[in-house]
From TrEMBL:
Cofactors demanded by this protein: pyridoxal 5'-phosphate
Claim: Lyase is one of the keywords in the record: yes
GO molecular function, one term: threonine deaminase activity
Protein name listed in UniProt: Threonine dehydratase
Residue ranges of domain Tryptophan synthase beta chain-like PALP in the record: 19-303
Organism from which the protein derives: Pseudovibrio brasiliensis
Pfam family membership, one: PALP
The keyword Kinase is annotated on this UniProt entry: no
Keywords noted in UniProt: Lyase, Pyridoxal phosphate
């Protein structure tokens, strides 16, 4: 359970290294969707993703707990690894980042630019994570989890910024990977006692969270083959599912084509770049815009880090195939 005091403390800690991100409403986007839409611009955070908040707070709290190691291992599809690499550099620590094979050279290059040691292993996030676990055990380094309290608290700081600014939002659409972002939003919404509906969005080809909600029990898919890399996981973290199940209004699926169209819509109306995972939130909002006419809605533009080749394909009207 998050408390307001814990949130305030976390926000103050992060503010020493990064400023709050913008919450803007863009007229052309509002016109296209028929409602007032507020974008939480986590794409303007350090490393271009909200994961910078999570990674930095995690490492800060590890130091406060007097963890003797200053070397950490993390598995990632991209943004969490970027966040860990950046935060480790800021705090003069070391990070080894494990990514699945085939991760774009732009992502791996960006991770290495912060001084992290990079390893490519496995066909997807789950195999990369298994390797990272073994590596941490063998080398006596600290394994950075993909989901835990400090990571959720880091994400909750952007939720705090949203709900402090606008208390009468009707709905927020958020992409769901392991569940850090949606759990932060649910926790802060409930802490403030607000009525905002929180809708999670997954890719049709990585819909473990939607299947889990429908089945009423934790379920993983056998694969996660979507170009929306940040949500390309077989399901949410097991620890996240209970909160998602109790606090999310629903989990909806969007297609690869709908995600690509959302990237184009965002660029056309705001000139902001979006990666596939971040555009999933807008794709979900757009899919349900018939229920939002005249209302206030928001989505989390959680990252902008899509590789150049895929972005060029999308802007030319195509849908990337991972």
């Amino acid at each position: 359970m998050l408390t307001l005091a814990a949130l305030e403390d976390a926000s103050q800690e992060l503010r020493r290294y990064m400023v709050p991100t913008a919450l803007y409403s863009w007229p052309l986007l509002n016109d296209a969707l028929g409602c007032e839409v507020f974008i939480k611009h986590e794409n303007h955070a350090p490393t271009g993703s909200f994961k910078a908040r999570c990674a930095l707070l995690y490492l800060l709290r590890q130091s406060q707990r007097h963890i003797s190691s200053t070397s950490f291992v993390a598995a990632t599809r991209g943004n969490f690894g970027l966040g860990m690499a950046w935060a480790a550099r800021v705090l003069h620590q070391r990070a080894a980042i494990v990514v699945p094979q085939g991760t774009s050279k732009e992502t791996t290059g960006a991770i290495q630019s912060y001084g992290a040691f990079l390893i490519e292993h496995g066909k997807d996030f789950e195999e990369a994570h298994d390797f990272a676990c073994q590596m941490a055990e063998d080398s006596k380094q600290v394994l950075s989890p993909g989901f835990d309290y400090d990571l959720v608290l880091g994400a909750a700081t952007y939720a705090l910024e949203i709900f402090r600014a606008i208390k009468d939002l009707d709905a927020i659409y958020v992409p769901v990977g392991l569940g850090t972002g949606i759990c932060g939003l649910i926790s802060v919404r409930d802490l403030f006692g607000l009525n905002t509906k929180i809708i999670g969005v997954v890719a049709e080809k990585a819909d473990g969270c939607a299947r889990s909600m429908e089945a009423g029990e934790y379920t993983l898919t056998s694969s996660a083959n979507t170009f929306a890399e940040g949500i390309s996981v077989r399901g949410p973290a097991r620890e996240a599912f209970a909160l998602i199940r109790s606090g999310a209004e629903r989990i909806i699926r969007v297609s690869e084509d709908e995600i690509a169209e959302a990237i184009r819509l965002l660029y056309r109306t705001t000139h902001n770049a979006s990666e596939g995972a971040a555009a999933a939130g807008l794709a979900g909002l757009s899919k349900e815009r018939g229920n939002l006419q005249g209302k206030k809605a928001s989505f989390i533009l959680c990252g902008q880090n899509m590789n150049r080749i895929w972005m060029a394909k999308v802007l030319q009207g195509d849908t990337p195939i991972p």
